[in-house]
Design brief:
Number of domains: 3
Number of helices: 8
Radius of gyration: 40 Å
CATH class of the largest domain: Alpha Beta
Helix content: 55-70%
Oligomer: single chain
CATH architecture of the largest domain: 2-Layer Sandwich
CATH topology of the largest domain: Heat Shock Protein 90
Strand content: 15-25%
Strand order of the largest sheet: 6-8-9-11-10
Distance between the termini: 47 Å
Length: 382
């Protein structure tokens, strides 16, 4: 509730502002319509006085003509019709007319009646429309609704971005703290290995290189955690050498007896350099290989890590396995943070890999179409 409070407050405030503005604009529209009706009434009286032959034309005609011209300058669309509905006078129509008896003029009189009720004065019926101001005020609420909608959407996006940034800071802080906490046991393990070196035991001698390799890997993982949240490095990295190191590491640790898993590298014999961060690129490739190993657990199979250059510049790193593959309904979810098909999975591996590839290296991570198994492709710019 506390996390959602800002969103609720912003939404309530926006809705309140919107309701208040609509009420205000409708009130203004009502007042303007009332003024237009009064103008029409004056117009009818003046025209009636001008048509009254019993009055002295010399004393009032000039005044009436001046008043009519003043009313015309208000730009109010007006059509005056006689007793039989024949148009007699028009003013401020939005089109040019050739004749007062034009069907277009008669039809437009009905349009004006839909805007405001006609006024009858003697044998004259006045049909009056809305002023440009009223027409503009009718559009303003729609514009404001659109503007407020954009503001609400922007506010929601900003709040979500801020929440996402908070989660990123917490995640980065926890990762760095984990790296710091790993430092002490790693130092102790180095000391224990030095003590084990003094033992003349064939099994210990055989195990020490693997133990040292695992300690080096733990140190590398701790170093990776320290890099989370920091700017990525921009240096020349040989993708083939990085992939070869990953394949070599996992090849020595996958099952080889029951349900064996074979990992091989298919890459050019020469260097394939890209600009990037070696530590993060190795992490991304390891994550894809680890996912493939998990997919083949209990059934065995093969994993191929291939590297090829892309036409027009760039490099494609492909990790393909012949496992069960990814169901079609899950293909859009697998890169979402927190989503995992494993009961004990955290669902951050592919999300973190995509972040490394796309945000840190301006590349793309995609799940490529395949007839069997799963094929993930990292496409890096040249």
């Amino acid at each position: 509730m506390r996390r959602n409070a800002p969103v609720v407050i912003v939404a309530v405030g926006m809705v309140t502002l919107l309701v208040a503005f609509i009420w205000y604009s409708q009130n203004v529209l009502s007042n303007l319509r009332s003024e237009a009706q009064q103008t029409a009434s004056i117009y009818a009286k003046v025209y009636g006085a001008m048509s009254d032959t019993s009055s002295d034309p010399g004393s009032s005609t000039a005044v009436y003509v001046d008043l009519v011209e003043s009313l015309k300058r208000l730009r109010v669309p007006v059509i005056l019709t006689g007793a039989h509905g024949m148009p007699q006078v028009t003013s401020n129509l939005p089109f040019n007319i050739d004749s007062l008896n034009s069907p277009h003029v008669r039809a437009y009189a009905d349009t004006l009646d839909a805007q405001n009720a006609p006024i009858t004065s003697g044998f004259v019926v006045i049909h009056i429309g809305n002023t440009p101001l009223i027409r503009g005020m009718e559009v303003i609420p729609l514009l404001m609704v659109a503007v407020l909608g954009v503001l609400i959407l922007s506010g929601v996006v900003m709040l979500r971005s801020e929440s996402h940034a908070d989660r990123e800071r917490i995640f980065a802080g926890m990762a760095r703290e984990s790296a710091h906490q790993l430092g002490t046991p790693l130092s102790s393990m180095h000391g224990w290995i030095e003590l084990l070196r003094e033992r003349d035991d064939p099994m210990i001698v055989q195990a020490l290189p693997h133990m040292e390799s695992d300690i080096v890997r733990l140190e590398r993982v701790a170093h990776r955690f320290e890099r989370i949240g920091r700017p990525s490095r921009r240096e020349q990295v040989d993708v083939v050498e990085v992939a070869r190191h990953v394949v070599s590491y996992f090849s020595a640790r996958v099952p080889t007896l029951a349900h064996p898993i074979i990992i091989r590298l298919d890459a050019p014999g020469s260097d394939v350099p890209v600009v990037g961060d070696r530590v993060l690129l190795e992490w991304a490739i390891e994550s894809l290989v680890k996912n493939a190993i998990d997919a083949l657990a209990g059934r065995g199979g093969s994993i191929v890590v291939s590297i090829e250059t892309v036409l027009g510049g760039g490099v494609r790193v492909r990790v393909a396995d012949n496992g069960p593959g990814v169901p079609r309904e899950l293909r859009r979810k697998i890169f979402s943070a927190g989503f995992s098909t494993k009961e004990s999975g955290w669902g951050i591996g592919l999300a973190l890999t995509r972040r490394i590839v796309e945000e840190s290296h301006r590349g793309r991570l995609v799940l490529a179409p395949s007839t069997a198994g799963a094929v993930f492709e990292i496409i890096l710019p040249g």
